[in-house]
Design goal:
alpha/beta; 288 residues; 42% helix; six-stranded mixed beta sheet; two-stranded antiparallel ribbon; 8 strands; Rossmann fold
């Protein structure tokens, strides 16, 4: 199995389960559900993407919430399968989950569960400190702690009697309650509107500020076709590692057919500035 094949299967599932064609009877037009019906460039690019992915027209009605959940699940499955191919580069016992798993279940953030227990019932504290610091990412990747037997599998490395490495969460021996280490927090946005991009940045800042331990990878996976809207999330540094498009080469080809140099310039700037990559890059970046 190669990454290219997994990527094709990923797109096939998105075509079948996520992409739908919507009708606007008032404007007498049809458009894919990743496009903005009020923006001609958005619709043109989206149609180009759909054509390049080989999606058939599907008019079945599906709610936006369902579409978002499917996009998260399909992306999680792709990353899990792709990351398995890289076990020799990044060995470990990994866990993957969607359904907005709270970060307080991971080693770096377990103290937040206690804070929430103390603060939430107290309205004065809650109003002063807030209660939104427990992030629930769309997709999480965690690494389970390792037993001493596994650490010593190749050669003797450590023993309980040594008195060494007694605080690191990677050793299962050090944990009273076995908690995974959060390796990656992944936000999924099928489309981007101005209000949605800020939620992702806020979650990222909470992950950065509230950790006790190593910072996990903090990324976003998107389906948005319009580069200027992608820029609202991708531009800048300090919060997100990078933004990943579910079909970046296809997006670039579709944009090439559109006579809009401003949008093409923005897309190229995001790519050259290392702020936008393809979904196939993400498994490798998670292996770093």
């Amino acid at each position: 199995m190669q990454i290219a094949q997994l990527r094709r299967e990923y797109h096939q599932r998105i075509c079948q389960e996520v992409i739908r064609i919507r009708r606007d009877t008032f404007k007498n037009l049809e458009y894919p559900n990743l496009a903005d019906s009020g923006n001609k460039s958005s619709m043109t690019i989206a149609w180009g993407l759909v054509a390049r992915l080989g999606c058939s027209k599907n008019y079945a009605g599906v709610s936006e919430q369902t579409i978002g959940g499917r996009f998260e699940k399909i992306t999680k499955d792709f990353l899990e399968a792709a990351f398995q191919l890289l076990q020799h580069l990044r060995p470990g016992n990994w866990v993957y989950a969607t359904a907005q798993t709270a970060i307080s279940g991971f080693d770096q953030y377990e103290h937040l569960a206690y804070l929430e227990k103390v603060i939430r019932p107290d309205k004065t504290l809650a109003s002063a400190l807030g209660t939104d610091y427990i992030v629930k990412p769309d997709i999480i990747v965690g690494r389970l702690p390792v037993a001493d037997e596994e650490i010593n599998r190749v050669a003797p490395v450590i023993a309980p009697a040594d008195g060494c490495a007694t605080f690191t969460p990677l050793r299962e021996e050090n944990q009273k309650i076995r908690r995974p280490i959060l390796h990656a927090s992944i936000s999924c946005k099928w489309t981007i509107r101005s209000d949605r991009s800020q939620n992702t940045r806020t979650e990222a800042l909470n992950l950065i500020r509230n950790r006790k331990g190593p910072l996990p990878h903090i990324v976003a996976v998107i389906g948005e076709p319009l580069p200027t809207r992608i820029a609202a999330l991708a531009l800048g540094t300090g919060d997100l590692d990078c933004v990943y498009h579910f079909a970046l080469p296809e997006l670039k080809e579709a944009l090439g057919e559109l006579n809009n140099q401003d949008q093409m310039d923005m897309l190229q700037m995001l790519i050259d500035g290392r702020r936008l990559r393809d979904i196939s890059d993400l498994p490798f970046d998670l292996a770093t």
